[in-house]
Amino acid sequence: MISAAIVGGTGYTGIELIRLLSAHPEVSIDLLTSRSEAGTRADEIFPSLRGISDLVFSDLGNETLSTLQQCDVVFFATPHGVAMKQAEALTQAGVKVIDLAADFRLQSLADFEHWYQQPHACPDLLKTAVYGLPELNRDKLANALIVGNPGCYPTTAILGLKPIIEAQNQQANRLIEARIVIDAKSGVSGAGRQASIALNYAETTDNFKAYGVTGHRHLPEIEQGIAQLLNSQFTHRVRFLPHLVPMIRGMFSSIHLELTDAGQGVDWQQVFENSYASEAFIDVMPRGMYPDTRSVRASNRLRIAVHQDNERAELTILVVQDNLVKGAAGQAVQNMNVMFGLNETLGLNAAPIVP
Amino acid sequence: MISAAIVGGTGYTGIELIRLLSAHPEVSIDLLTSRSEAGTRADEIFPSLRGISDLVFSDLGNETLSTLQQCDVVFFATPHGVAMKQAEALTQAGVKVIDLAADFRLQSLADFEHWYQQPHACPDLLKTAVYGLPELNRDKLANALIVGNPGCYPTTAILGLKPIIEAQNQQANRLIEARIVIDAKSGVSGAGRQASIALNYAETTDNFKAYGVTGHRHLPEIEQGIAQLLNSQFTHRVRFLPHLVPMIRGMFSSIHLELTDAGQGVDWQQVFENSYASEAFIDVMPRGMYPDTRSVRASNRLRIAVHQDNERAELTILVVQDNLVKGAAGQAVQNMNVMFGLNETLGLNAAPIVP
Amino acid sequence: MISAAIVGGTGYTGIELIRLLSAHPEVSIDLLTSRSEAGTRADEIFPSLRGISDLVFSDLGNETLSTLQQCDVVFFATPHGVAMKQAEALTQAGVKVIDLAADFRLQSLADFEHWYQQPHACPDLLKTAVYGLPELNRDKLANALIVGNPGCYPTTAILGLKPIIEAQNQQANRLIEARIVIDAKSGVSGAGRQASIALNYAETTDNFKAYGVTGHRHLPEIEQGIAQLLNSQFTHRVRFLPHLVPMIRGMFSSIHLELTDAGQGVDWQQVFENSYASEAFIDVMPRGMYPDTRSVRASNRLRIAVHQDNERAELTILVVQDNLVKGAAGQAVQNMNVMFGLNETLGLNAAPIVP
Amino acid sequence: MISAAIVGGTGYTGIELIRLLSAHPEVSIDLLTSRSEAGTRADEIFPSLRGISDLVFSDLGNETLSTLQQCDVVFFATPHGVAMKQAEALTQAGVKVIDLAADFRLQSLADFEHWYQQPHACPDLLKTAVYGLPELNRDKLANALIVGNPGCYPTTAILGLKPIIEAQNQQANRLIEARIVIDAKSGVSGAGRQASIALNYAETTDNFKAYGVTGHRHLPEIEQGIAQLLNSQFTHRVRFLPHLVPMIRGMFSSIHLELTDAGQGVDWQQVFENSYASEAFIDVMPRGMYPDTRSVRASNRLRIAVHQDNERAELTILVVQDNLVKGAAGQAVQNMNVMFGLNETLGLNAAPIVP
């Protein structure tokens, strides 16, 4: 059994990790920490865990740190800036670290410090961190000590673009015009479990809005993913605009691409099907189908539909995921499975909840 | 024109008052105060007011108080305990006060102090305050200086029981068994516009729960209303249980009564229709119809359905209102209309919003 | 492996059965039928099943019947009146039948015909059917050929009252006054997957209403459950009123009881804890806690809170379940586990989905 | 008083027309028709109208037609294809016609027949019809006999692009690259009041999806609006993708534009403010603000935010409206006001409903 700890278990990614890891046949959650709820049972905060977990939140003091160092893996379900302060002590003790916040997502120190407005606590470790998108970095993950679990939006964007960029890499002509518009929509749980008037039920229900118009932290992460994939002279400009949907879970990214004449000659449905044929969690829907977010609710599945309209030179990629699962905790468990040499789908096979 | 002020305009009853009074043909809102948002335009906080209101929030300092004293009426859309501290200075200046919080609802000082856990700031004024349910106290309201605007639940409970208690008053036999179960449900806006994890969208949506099982502050207010109506040896025991419904606005009270043999001989539909025949805002639905909360959304209407089942000795009264209108701001405006001798429906005729 | 069939797989209980049985380690779904969708893959109707199930809907013709007869168990997730027409052919072939509709719930033929307005197709078989509430009828279920899976409301009502009635059975004095008010609330999925204006999103969202005021089919089922438990001179009168909550899943029953003096001497929390100590799916919450429906979302758990207020002679039992799981498909699987001698919790251990 | 009739009053645009016209000081609704509900009072179908309207639905037979011919204006809140069959008889009688469906939106007969898959019943009248977007066609509307009330999406798209195209018309250089991406989102009421599994609450709540990927009927209407505005060599290619949001009312269009170097030199906020300075219903929000759909709920206001990011050459226009008001019934009333020479805002001044 893998001994796991979850630092910061009172947020939505925290409880989702508890839910997933409690059902994982090869993992034991041995420590759960929370600054604000130290001493409280997890199932007092989340009665849904009654009968599922007996864990009690610990404070993240020195004693706890020493306990953490005896775990095999520590998940940080904390705000940005926490994991990087603990990472050195843990990795030196041989503990693998999976940070669900942003401390190890951006490989560029400058980008991190620009977008997160704080110095990085361990720039050297950052260089060794692996961006935890298994469909992109499966090999590196196998030996990773520190994993930066991707942001929710970038997961949909990068996986929605990967087959296209890889197809482009193999062509002398441009297939897709340079400008990529990613119009993305997220359920409210993506904003976290926090007290905020703006997140109050009566403020968000029966309502829809955009945010982050002039720059969202997930944009550099999307650009980094594209850059990693790109092996071509044909670069791209990404327009990323997130919106808030009155739903609990779910993320929907509408990716608008313009086909060149050469691009119109490609059968993009086939490209996607080939690209993801061996991926357990990526479902390329049949031609003409539409994904909806509920079809992946509470599941680690990410669904993609490819709509090609040569008459209008349009290629539209629609991507859905559960922002808390494939967009956060599920992906973290998938990463853990890879890091520990387990079957990648272990503990992640549950069917989506519909209706 | 009546010069009105709203103290505490940043909550849901506050913005609802602004919405209603802005459309009132005989009222001018001359002052709007907020401790937290002083200096900010109301339409910055609530962009829905753009083009509707140019008001800027003032702080409630000495200068403001002096301005308040020049108004004709001051609405307090504040937490409990604020209005009672200002009431004396205002009423001495001849300003009428309508408190949408609880400071002037309970006529018993002991009850107030027990349920609200604070001493009352002006017990003498409390004696002169009128409970602002026009259908109960229309005559007293005409000359009231201070009005305690009813709680949302008590409005549905008292108006749902009034015809029954009045019918009982005229009978020598018991018509209804002593125990009255009021199972009530409220939309989330009833909890106010506040930052609270428990009110977060992802906590309240797709969810239903009870609260206040062992005692809700609206119970003594319901009991007070019944006591005022009661003129009979046949007293009642009220069980009041509130629940939280994942909807923005709306309140639904299911009142469960048991008919005696004598009570089965009464045509309760007729009793209700007669009782409310002249009330502009109370709609007794035809036999067999069901009210739903959306049918009064954004309106001052309160709808009642009377379901009598002699076979099972059941009398069920279903009452709906918009908790922010008839349950708060609309009722306050209705009270103001009565207090100033205006047509009671002035500014309150808008149709409900459906869908 | 148990060979199972689902007749009528396109409704919400149907897809929930597919979801649960697909993850059940001892079951293989070998047949899925639908009149309206014959020939269509289940995952075309429900894309959430893509990668989970390859099943194709069959029509329920003669050929299918012969295939059904080779199964070990057939679940009917059909409208009322379908299962009773097939039950004889199946049970004669030794196939166990679990009907999620009402054909085998009411043991009284007269009650069935009164409430469902149709003659019963197999009155003799009805006598042998077991009411599928394992917490009530576990022993009988072990040998049952036909199981009438309980209605959703009755499950909450009967399990919310069972410890009380059993306690009463052992006392010479009345503990609880005769009148029991069950004010129940259900999510919209309880109305089924059907095309209906009344169930349209824009009709049900941000709305709350009661229905079935003058008689709901689940009332005789609740009364039957109470009658089965009752072994005392102290009978009860049940008032049952259902409401529709704008949420997908979830059921909440507020049971209002009045304590006699003797009843006030009982520690009801303890009574419930003792009564359900060995039940895997029934969670009696600690004193003072409140259940909410999301705490059991997508789980077979039923949660109960006991609130006793001697000062007001009130005993309030709050019961939550997922109407599609413990209220339907989960309970059916639990019944199947009992009927086939499996561990009762097999395939039903998944944690609730929160948020 | 203007004598008005509403043909097809049982849909959402129908009830919204009843709501708005009932409060209009210069209009009397003299006839209401419905095929399916003939003989029924409107307030039986929509109890929210109890006390607001006494109207009874008539069938649309010959007798009714003759009554319609005595009205001043007839609103068609019917499916596509109904108004064009009645238009000739009405206009010959001097009755003005406002069709809320699509019969008179597209001026090109070929476009109409291609997108709506039916021959047009009165091609000659079509040539005289005016596209009822007052901000575009105010002058023509003053003398119009037949008005095609715009689709909801085109209203947001055309008004969101109008200032840009008009600015472009006056420039020798391209300001905006040719490709315009309109990623639009609508509340569920936009799909109409119909019985459909896909619109069932449990199918649409907590869910998000795209539709019409390969061609939506509102696209040619958007293109027609752009073409009307365009007076420049610089044409545009529009990508229009609609989505369904789990909310009742509200429409949000995110318009993604790419600025040329010349376009970066323009202050687009100022362009929009100037362009709409005299429009009563169009609110250009201050720099940096975000619109949300609830800020226009139940109101005829359309709100626009202009976000210009020269660093990334992005111009993002965010447009919100209530799809049933400015997107349908409110715009129809606004058109009527213009057609009858009334103050354009008459009956349309109510504040949005927030929360």
UniProtKB/TrEMBL annotation, chains A, B, C, D:
Residues 3-144 form the Semialdehyde dehydrogenase NAD-binding domain. It is found in: Cytoplasm. GO terms for cellular component: cytoplasm. InterPro entries: AGPR, AGPR_AS, AGPR_dimerisation_dom, AGPR_type-1, NAD(P)-bd_dom_sf, Semialdehyde_DH_NAD-bd. Keywords: Amino-acid biosynthesis, Arginine biosynthesis, Cytoplasm, NADP, Oxidoreductase. Pathway: Amino-acid biosynthesis; L-arginine biosynthesis; N(2)-acetyl-L-ornithine from L-glutamate: step 3/4. Gene3D superfamilies: Dihydrodipicolinate Reductase, domain 2, NAD(P)-binding Rossmann-like Domain. GO terms for molecular function: N-acetyl-gamma-glutamyl-phosphate reductase activity; NAD binding; NADP+ binding. Belongs to the NAGSA dehydrogenase family. Type 1 subfamily. NCBIfam families: argC. This is N-acetyl-gamma-glutamyl-phosphate reductase.
